[in-house]
């Protein structure tokens, strides 16, 4: 009888160990092939960027940039929306005037509806000149639980590098926790 109890306890312990060993801790995440995790544990999303990009948490927000030679960057900002039923288009309209006042030659190149990890989002591509440099911005806005999320990719237009694949990979692999 004692041996049966010992064997039963050993089997139960082995099963528990196997069960819990397979569970992921909150800080573990499946990183897509060719990407690295750029977001921290304190945000409610996963931002992945291509391998070789540099993660930069020094500005108090989630961001990463390609390299010192190519300052193409991505950042994510979030804030509470003024109204519970605000849409991504509402958020764009609220802040578009600020963009127009900050940049000379502000031009919206395109705006399209898209899905960001299955949720409604709006993607805006625009250019503007600031301090003598012309920048191209790709901004994706989504609203989740009364909070606006703004993913911004910034490129200097004088760069000859094509960042289309990187931008697509960043947006396609964005995930909510």
Task: Give a quick rundown of the structure.
With 177 residues, the protein is α+β, with helices and mostly antiparallel strands. 25% of the residues lie in helices and 40% in strands.
Written overview of the protein:
It is a single chain. The chain has 177 residues and is α+β, with helices and mostly antiparallel strands. The protein is built from three helices and eleven strands; from the N terminus they run H-E-E-E-E-E-E-H-E-E-E-E-H-E. The chain has a seven-stranded antiparallel sheet with strand order 4-5-6-10-9-8-7, with helices on both faces. It has a two-stranded antiparallel sheet with strand order 1-3. A two-stranded antiparallel ribbon has the order 2-11. The longest helix is centred in the N-terminal third of the chain and has 20 residues, at 2-21.
% residues in beta strands: 35-45%
Percent of residues in helices comes to: 10-25%
- What count of helical segments does DSSP give? 3
Largest sheet: 7 strands, antiparallel
Radius of gyration: 22 Å
């Amino acid at each position: 009888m004692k041996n049966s109890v010992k064997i039963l306890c050993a089997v139960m312990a082995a099963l528990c160990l196997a069960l819990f060993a397979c569970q992921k801790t909150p800080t573990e995440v499946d990183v897509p092939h060719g990407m690295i995790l750029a977001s921290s544990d304190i945000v409610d999303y996963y931002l992945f960027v291509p391998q070789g990009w540099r993660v930069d948490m020094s500005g108090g927000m989630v961001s990463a940039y390609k390299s010192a030679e190519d300052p193409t960057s991505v950042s994510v900002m979030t804030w509470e929306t003024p109204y519970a039923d605000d849409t991504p288009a509402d958020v764009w309209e609220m802040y578009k005037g600020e963009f127009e006042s900050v940049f000379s030659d502000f031009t919206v190149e395109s705006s399209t509806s898209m899905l960001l990890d299955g949720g409604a989002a709006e993607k805006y591509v625009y250019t503007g000149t600031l301090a003598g440099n012309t920048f191209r911005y790709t901004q994706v806005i989504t609203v989740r639980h009364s909070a606006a999320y703004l993913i911004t990719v910034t490129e200097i237009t004088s760069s000859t590098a094509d960042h289309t694949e990187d931008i697509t990979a960043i947006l396609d692999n964005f995930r909510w926790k």
